[in-house]
Amino acid sequence: MKFTHLFLLLLVVSTAAQAQKKYEWKTATAGGYTYRYVTNDPMGTRFYTLKNGLTVALSPNKKEPRIAVRIPVRTGSNTDPKDHTGLAHYLEHLLFKGTDKFGSLNWAQEKPYLDQVDNLYEQYNSTTDAAQRKTIYHTIDSVSGIAAKYAIANEYDKMMAALGSQGTNAHTWVEETVYEENIPATALDKFLTIQSERFRQPIFRIFHTELEAVYEEKNRSLDNDGWKVQEAMHSLLFPTHNYGQQTTIGTIEHLKNPSLKAIREYYYKFYVPNNMAIVLAGDFNPDEVIKKVDAAFNYMQPKPVEEYKGPVEAPVKGAVVKEIYGPSAETMRIVYRTGPSNSREAFLADLTSSILANGKAGLLDLNLNKSQKVLGASAGVRQYKDYGVFVLLANPKQGQTLEQVKDILLEQIDKLKKGEFDESLIKAIVANYKLSQLTAMENNANRVEDIVDQFIKNRGQGWDKNVAQLDDMAKVTKKEIVDFANRFFLADNYAVIYKRKGEDKNIVKVEKPAITPVETNAGKQSDFVKSITKDALAPTQPVWMDYNKDIQKGKAGLADVLTVPNKDNSLFRLNYYFSMGNFNNRMLPIALQYLQFLGTEKYTAEDITKQFYNLASSFSANAANEETTITISGLQENFDQSVALFEHLLRNCQADEKALEALKDRLLKSRANNKTNKQAIAAAIRDYAVYGANNPFNYVLTNEEIKSLRAEDLVALLHALPSYKHDVLYYGPSPLAKLSADISRLHPMPKAWTAAPKAVQFKPLKQAANQVLFNDYDAVQSEIYWVRDLGQYDPKSTAKINLYNNYFGGGMSSVVFQTIRESKALAYSTYAFVQTPAKKEDDYTFVGYVGSQADKMNDAINGMNDLLKEMPKTEQNFVNAVKSQKKDIETQRITKDAIIFSYLNAKKKGLTEDVRKTVYNELDKLTLADIAAYHQQQFQNQPFTYTVIASEKKINVDDLKKYGEVKKVAVDDLFGYENVSRAF
Do 606 and 525 share a structural domain? Predict the structure, then answer.
């Protein structure tokens, strides 16, 4: 018999009752400030508008002593001048360079040189003769070098690190520039002082090296096929609107001809209070915070802002097609243009995308993914203020053309238009959306990002619709969706992008200018920063885990039961945790993939998927190298039904030869795609460097072994899985005694555990001499990694290694970033860290990285090698690193089932207590000399394995011989898919 839909009935009743409540804007006054709020807003968000027009949005959340911050500005590539595209993005980078008060040792002496640089760039911008341009740039480089002697590179980032901020960053997109931080709650006063100063009078110093970082970012986009597809998608749907006519990074021509004068004019035009917001979510009292924000930003003066008014686009006609070429796997998109963000069309388009694809029970999910008719398909909406983009995407199986995939997607659109879906799907979407909202609201970053989205699109005026969205979705009928689909999806009102595998002959990279490394004045501080850091932040009491108290332990049959109570809501997560994985049986990961396509005697695979979705619950089953985790999650009221449904599937699934053949086909196609994916190649070659030709990455079934898999063997493995030793992990509202009884009832145990197959062991290589592993890949960029084994795990070294990572290579204030990017302009992305192993028997591994233009490869390698030979020692940066580490630990709150996984991870390392307590107490005892001694011992004059991914057309492979013996490694050797002889 089918499972009851009691949950859906209860949902309908509760939704009907909730619909009677109004989500209305109200006004209130507290502490002398008036704010607006929406009734029944679960985030309790207050919207203030200060006298100068600055929007302040506050969402209190006391779950942890931190505050997520976003400072959005309503400007992006839409508002770039036509002759200076990419300007908003440039400006975002420059807002990290300081003001006349910080970022400079002596502003009065620095200013004349920066004025010269300004004027030189104007000359450079207007000069077309190549020789003259080269001469002017040489002068820019020379004068910039003098100016840099007075500059303090990355002083902003160092300040934020000292405050304990996490995630210091920013991004620019079509109509937004957003500055991002996550600070300790006790740092709010200092943070507001810094931000107030940051936006008062930004100084565009160290410009030419930052410009080079943007060049690198542009070149990375040229290597990114996904980015190229995205640009094509926008240009086809928006032939006149700036969404499609101006890219965020800008054109190569405009990148080569920047104007500091134009950037400054842009700043004063758009960075005004009535075009900005301060958005905070976290541990604070809003009545107190609004006063502080007002005091910090009331100096800002409003100005009229002329918003970009895009043209009205004519309807798309003719099913426009564009082809994109690149080295990665083939894929395709069908894209439609939707209406403005606050329109009914945008709302229905978003809901319709969930009917097509919600990851579980949408038309694409069931008819294409579950039926394995394509490699993978999905749908979604990217909504902007004026328009949105409705995307249908899919990847082809073996032997499938992109044109065939397009037809398969359009068949699903036809089914939608004919109403070939259950009306109950809408209710289930609402229930699952509610579930995801409950989870998302616990995270401060999710809160601020939701608010920022509304501010950018309509200054927050649509927050009432955002809060009411669940109710509004529940009112939509199947007829309304079908009527909308027939209006929206016409025969020729879309564009198609085919991403084909092949050489992109249109790539023109940004050439490397001649840049002399600049002084960074590492360790020096401006008077402003000294005033900020002279008084320590009020301490926050760390909270340590006590595994004996925080975790309740019991038994259910043979299994250990570990639980943490959920006192906040009615959500649960149940895990079956096995100490066996791919290393024990290479069939196990594939068997768990196969499970999602199987049915039982009672239910088809589609029936099971629908039932899970209707219960607003889900399951996942994943085998890592040494562990396997099965997770069932959802609402506690549906715990019994959800667990019973999964148990029924696992224990009664039936072999399906057709599903297996389709899975094999998809696996083989995915593997072929992996061999064209630069990120996958990078992961593979790093494991090759650590372990050699036989390594964890390529310990997989060969293609021939995949082809010979038998359905009955995979099903037998699935049926046998509960007989292997495993723990039961639970986070939810059910008491331990009841849970243990429920597990004993729902999850039958064997009388004795079945012994797991012995796991294969991998030991890292000990580098005796430098070696270079090279993979030829068609790309503008070169990707370089340094790998070195550092010996067995030692818990006594945890504090030192964590501090070393923070100081040397772990962020924008680190030695590596300061030198490679800020001083030498050799890369957009660079880092270095010591990777801690998961088990006490395993070794530490060092990984360094620089992603640079191919013509900078040698300079980049030498730059990192110089740092590895001799680590720069700066006492102030070390002090900041200690402060940052301590604040991170003080404000970290490990909660929910993360406590259980922390305990299990500690056990694997031989630890019985929260290691953070030891680390915290040791940090103040460590000195810069300790970190320097560790660096010298581990890296100075020591051999490394270099891995280089680059195009032989763009680098000289013989250059690599300077660093060690060169071995060319083909992708077939990296992935282990071919039927070759391997000794594991």
Answer: no
Amino acid found at 201: Q
Same domain? For 520 and 601 the reply is: no
Q: Is residue 819 part of a domain?
A: yes
Distance, in Å, from the CA atom of 14 to the CA atom of 4, rounded to the nearest integer, reads 18
Pairing mode, strands 571-578 and 628-635: antiparallel
Residue 712: the pLDDT is 98
- On whether residue 53 sits in a domain, the answer given is yes
Complete DSSP assignment for 233-284: HHHHH-SSSHHHHS-SS--HHHHTS--HHHHHHHHHHH-SGGGBEEEEEESS
pTM of the model: 0.93
* Contact of 129 with 773, CB cutoff 8 Å: no
CA 467 to chain centre: 25
| Number of folded domains that form the chain | 3
Residue 230 in contact with residue 222, Cβ under 8 Å?
Answer: no
Instruction: Report phi then psi at 552, rounded to 5.
Output: -90, 130
pLDDT value, residue 981: 53
| Among the listed residues 564, 442, 554, the one whose alpha carbon sits nearest the alpha carbon of residue 899 | 564
Instruction: State whether 158 and 300 are in the same domain.
Output: yes
Residue 517 has a pLDDT of 87
Chain-centroid distance, C-alpha 247: 21
Domain limits for position 726: 547-676+701-746
pLDDT at residue 256, rounded to an integer: 83
Nearest residue to 58 (alpha-carbon basis) of 455, 498, 638: 455
pLDDT tens profile 97-139: 999 999 999 999 999 999 999 999 999 988 999 999 999 999 9
Task: Quick: pLDDT tens for 420-456.
Answer: 999 999 999 999 998 888 888 889 999 999 999 999 9
Q: 937-972 b/e with 16+ CB inside 10 Å = b?
A: ebbeeeebbbbbbbbeebbeeeebeebbebeebebe
Of the given ranges (213-222, 420-429, 548-557, 646-655), which has the lowest mean pLDDT? 213-222
- DSSP string over 360-420: SSSHHIIIIIITTSSSEEEEEEEE-SS-EEEEEEEE--TT--HHHHHHHHHHHHHHHHTT-
What tokens does 143 get? Answer: 């004068």
Residues 122 and 79 placed together within one structural domain of the fold? yes
pLDDT at 980: 55
Rounded to whole angstroms, how far apart are CA atoms 420 and 441? Answer: 34
pLDDT confidence of 1, banded at 50, 70, 90? very low
Specify the pLDDT at position 983: 58
The two three-digit tokens of residue 683, written as one number? 């992961």
Q: DSSP label at 514?
A: P
Q: Please list the residues that pair with 202 across neighbouring strands.
A: 99
What's the CA gap between 627 and 602, in Å, rounded?
A: 31
pLDDT recorded at residue 440: 87
419 in a domain, yes or no?
Answer: no
Helix-strand-coil split of the chain, %, nearest 5: 45, 20, 35
Element (DSSP H or E) covering residue 11: helix 6-19
What is the predicted pLDDT for the residue at 548? 95
What mean pLDDT is reported for the chain?
93
Query: In a 3-state reduction of DSSP, which class is residue 87?
Result: helix
Q: Are residues 205 and 73 in the same domain?
A: yes
Domain annotation covers residue 332? no
Q: Which residue has the higher pLDDT, 753 or 253?
A: 753
DSSP string, 529-586: HHHHHSSPPPP-------HHHHSEEEEETTEEEEEEE--SSSEEEEEEEES--TTT-T
